[in-house]
Design brief:
With about 325 residues, the protein is of the alpha/beta class. Helices cover about 40% and strands about 15% of the residues. The longest helix is centred in the middle third of the chain and has 15 residues, at about 105-120.
Length: about 325
Amino acid sequence: MAIPNDKMEYRRLGNTGVKVSVLSFGSWVTFDNQLDTDLALNCMQAAHDAGCNFFDNAEAYAGGKSETIMGEALRQLAWPRWSYLVTTKLFWGLHGSDPNMRNTLNRKYLSQAIDASLERFGLDFVDIVYCHRADPDTPMEETVWAMSDMVSQGKALYWGTSEWSADEIRHAIDIAERHHLHKPVTEQSQYNLLERDKVEREYARLYDDTGYGNTIWSPLASGLLTGKYRDGIPDDSRAALSGYGWLAERMTDAEAIAKIEKLRPIADRLGCSMAQLALAWCTKHPMVSTVITGASRVEQVVQNFEALDVIALLTDEVKDEMESAVR
């Protein structure tokens, strides 16, 4: 059964006027690897039924196939375009070893990459386009102008950064303000109970000074915080996928699992799953505009979005107890 969407909280994306659902849905790892178009469509519909209006993607996910799958799902779902936001991220490139089209934020790459992404999506524009990483080999001014031009041309409504340092973000904002260009408005960084330093410390002054947003990824530490890896790697998990040996190694870290198991009694006391507890915790940080969830089954989507019921249960005391448990 779908969760009534009146439970969803909507937050401003940084200091913009647009509002995003506090829980959102992303395609990293799952689209193409675990989800075909039909299953992706069903998962997106379940998220939408729960009040989700933010759908995250990237050029590099599944070598562009993730954008194609999401675009086809959106075409079949036929939601009004005003009712949802779609994102993509650019940096890694899809053109092999070409020096101008991979691991870069130069103007040539960015101007052609956004056109290719829109073609794969079958959309006229994306709502947010991110620089998927910073590029030390391209002058910041060139990148800022190119990203601002995307917004001016109507190919994106906003632009942001992903895994940039606070200094790099400030530099980009300063250039944009100096030249009266469209500024970046949001970061997309990893944030969860086990990965906190960047958001809580490095970005703290940036958030206070600029109101910069953050659409965080990996709120469950790639599934580690769900507690499902306590007894090994489930066959249907992302850690079991071919090419994800690095993830499997992390998921079987005995010390990390022992830490996470200290959260289980707290989840049991609140009557929720460990995943729901971890997702709800992420929403409590004021810089977090939305928490990007992922799933390979509709049931997982529904369970993740039931974390909306847990948010109100996370008092300051419970939050402190969780943080002490994994410290």
